[in-house]
Amino acid sequence: MIEVSIPSLEKEVDESGKSRKLFRVEVLFNERKHYVLRRSSEFQSLHRKLKKIIQTPDFPSKRSPHLRTKPMEQRRQELEVYIQEVIYQNEDVPQILLDFLHLKHFHTGNRQSSFDYQYSNQPVLRFFKDPYLSTCLPGLPDIVADGVLQGFYPRDVRVSFTASALATPDQSSSVEA
Fold first, then answer.
1. What percent of the chain has pLDDT above 90?
2. 26, 154, 161, 170: least surrounded by Cβ within 10 Å?
């Protein structure tokens, strides 16, 4: 799930000494947080691009009906709500928005999951022969099989995968397959 907030404004001064205000857009995705700095004009450009491919919420105006311009705090809040609405109103988050937020690995079909994995029924551990019937090389224990068997059985049950245990199982302390 993507969480987006615009908690603050930052001031940037370029080489010529001209300052401009940037919105700090914080993005929380897959338990990782990062931020991007965006100008107001970049939000407007994003809105124009999104309008071409999806139905968008109304873009916040720069001007207040009673004032010549809106206070930057109010504009910041409105842009935050705008981005959040775009994310939550669309089943598939548009790639344009993901690029704007600098998100690279996001599976757009599943907003609820924080992982982008397709699960398949592939074996994790595979034996080419039945481990209960195989014969190990003399002197070399089968560490993998011993570990798997120890994982399946409680600690008070002794399970061994050595040739001697297969040849003469001890009824009191070993488990027979």
1. 34
2. 154
Tokens of 107: 């599976």
- Tell me the C-alpha distance between 12 and 116, whole Å: 36
pTM of the prediction?
A: 0.56
pLDDT tens string 153-174: 666 656 555 555 445 555 554 4
* Measured CA angle at 74 (ends 71, 77), to 5 deg: 150
Q: Which residues pair with 100 in a beta bridge?
A: none
Q: Cα(92)–Cα(107) distance, rounded to whole angstroms?
A: 9
Tokens 């935050």 belong to which residue? 80
| Single-letter amino acid, residue 154 | P
Q: How many CB atoms lie within 10 A of CB 37?
A: 13
Q: Scanning the structure block, which residue is given the tokens 């407007």?
A: 44
Task: Report d(CA 106, CA 87) in Å as an integer.
Answer: 13
